[in-house]
Amino acid sequence: MVEVKNIALLGSTGSIGTQTLDVIAEYPHLFRAHTLTAGRRWELLASQARKFRPERVVIADESLYEQLKEALADLPVKVEAGAAAIAECVKDAELDMVLTAMVGYSGLAPTIEAIKAGKTIALANKETLVVGGQLISQLLENSSSCIIPVDSEHSAIFQCLVGESEREAEKIILTASGGPFRKLTPTQLENVTVKDALRHPNWDMGAKVTIDSASMMNKGFEMIEAHWLFDCPSEKIEVVVHPQSIVHSMVEFTDGSIKAQLGVPDMHLPIRYALGYPRRLPSGQPSLRLEQYAELTFERPDLRKFPLLRFAFDAISLGGTMPCILNAANEIAVAAFLDERIRFVEMPYIVENTMNRVAFSKDVDYAALVATNEEARRVASQIVSSL
Ligand code: MG
Question: 222 alpha carbon to ligand 1 midpoint, in Å?
Answer without folding.
Answer: 7
